[in-house]
Predict the 3D structure of the following.
Amino acid sequence: MAEYKLEVTTGDKQYAGTWDHIYVTLFGTEGQSERTELDNYGSDFSTGTTGTYTVKTSLSLGKLLLVKVEKDPFLYLPEDEWYFSKVVVTTPEGEAILFPCYRWISRGELVELRGGRAMKTFEEDHPLLIDHRKKELIHKKNFYQWKSLGEGLPNIVCFNDLSELPAEIRYSKSKSTESEIITLLTNIELKLKGLFGSTEKWESIEDMKKIFWCKKTTLSEYVSEHWKEDDFYGSQFLNGVNPNMIKRCSELPPNFPVTEEMVKPFLTEGSSLQKEMEKGNIFLYDQKRMDGITPRANYGELLHVTAGLCLLYVNQEKKLMPIAIQLHQQPSEQNPIFLPSDPEADWLLAKMFIKNADSMDHQAVHHLMNTHFLAEVYAVAALRSFSVIHPLYKLLIPHFRYTFHVNIGGRTYLFGPKGTLNGSSLGYDGLAKLMRRAHSETTYSSLCLPENIIARGLESIPNFYYRDDGLKLWNIINSFVKAVVEHYYPSDSEVCKDTELQEWISEIFTHGFFGNKASGFPAGFHTVEEVIKFITMVIFTATAQHAAVNSGQYDYYSWPPNGTLLLHKPPPTTKGQSSMRTILETLPDVGETVSFAALTWLLTEKYTDVVPMGSYPEERFDEPAPKQMIKEFQAELSYLSEAITARNSQLEVPYTYLNPADIENSITI
């Protein structure tokens, strides 16, 4: 008689336990066990518990291959899904083998679990496992299918509604409940104040401080006090929510005729624009890809969008200052170049129109498309291409937690014909066109931070904390990925013959970038180095980059004059005709303002089931080596977190968004 000891762990998620009957069958190279019920005295499978059970066989089953788990109803109780984390089986020979599951199981459902070390497809040597792997991938390809989001936009997962998602990739019940409560409380507060749905115009800038009673951050308060200041305005192009746009300017674009005389008063005494460009102190914000996109109609009249240009200068105090703004691409008498020496209202309006365009570009391109939607491409391709036993599936899947849920919800409530972003100056159709233009220009190197920084000439611009923290994070992720990938791929030849890996990158190239070779995205992998770089980019996108463009939204956008998705009046065409009253009339009305502010609250809220970057509560690797690599990864992230915290303690405006302690391990909101 042979005995197998099973340690069965029920997850600690809310309502994870079950009263139903659980059965297991063990499969080995020498046979299989009887179907055995797991039943101890008392309650089994309570939330967050591990139960020990014994499965007896007449003889040893040889090398253990699969564990089949089945869930049958207990009496006539209503369905209660069970969150089954893992089972560790200790064989009669004393070998302890991990069989990870980490998913919800419904009544009448069975799952067949692979255990032991991670395996690439060409390493399989048993007919049962080869067949099992083949059937698994056929099932996943049928279940996780691609569909079009729209012409020129990355393909998305096939599910139309959150109800279609399997339980293991939906929000936890606690997160769903917390999200609903925040939305409810926000709406109640705004309705009680009479702000929700109001079409009144703001009477004064100060009145906007009353939008929320209880939601304040140190930085949101700072923004409301300093939004007019040029040095704070300039700093946001480096350390605000959209640090992706400015480039070093060594030569003025021909359509931006800034003269030496115009900007001389704002440069170091005795210097010139040409000299400062040669020194690398002049930078350019250019929103040319928005040019010509028709804004949405508001009560029958088109709104106004400015595809503008802003020239910025690093002064002797190492502050980035705006020194010239042109609000449209083509210069003309009705399109003057605004300067800091112009009347206050003119200069403020010029800065606000640049920020309006930047806010829309940030939300649609750098936030939604370049993090949310691209992460979805990487996730769909991974689920379709990799077996759960594949080492890269084990490495990547924690970084796709909740990606489908948040994106499907976002396409309904945020980016959709009836979503909040439809209330922007461009509206849904205009934003979709902007995204198509941007995506057609997206390159692989632009998503790889070290190359992005060099291409934009931002290696030495001072006080660029997004760059400093981001490059350190990139290198830490890269070192971790390098260790894991080289452990499983000792040679380039192993990369070339891994059909699942090749299918993953092929699907990304096809469905994310439509086979566009000019994008620089690989259609296949030939070397270990290529795999390391690509996976580094994927993990960086789903963790650090998303945090950089998402976490500061309430800080910077909850104060509407600092950055709003909607402006009503046309931009100034002559100087000296505007006032603070003009600014109030240009800003969104009360109801529009609070709708955008409530969105930023929801997008930056902290939830109780957060998984911080580098935390892997789901134990998927069974080998000591990758477990040690994860520990070293976590240690490096911890060291960086301490350094960033120390740095921030010395800053008037701390940059916290790339502190690993505040970054989630996946895109969850």
Remarks:
- Residues 199 and 589 are 6 Å apart (CA to CA).
- The longest helix spans residues 344-385.
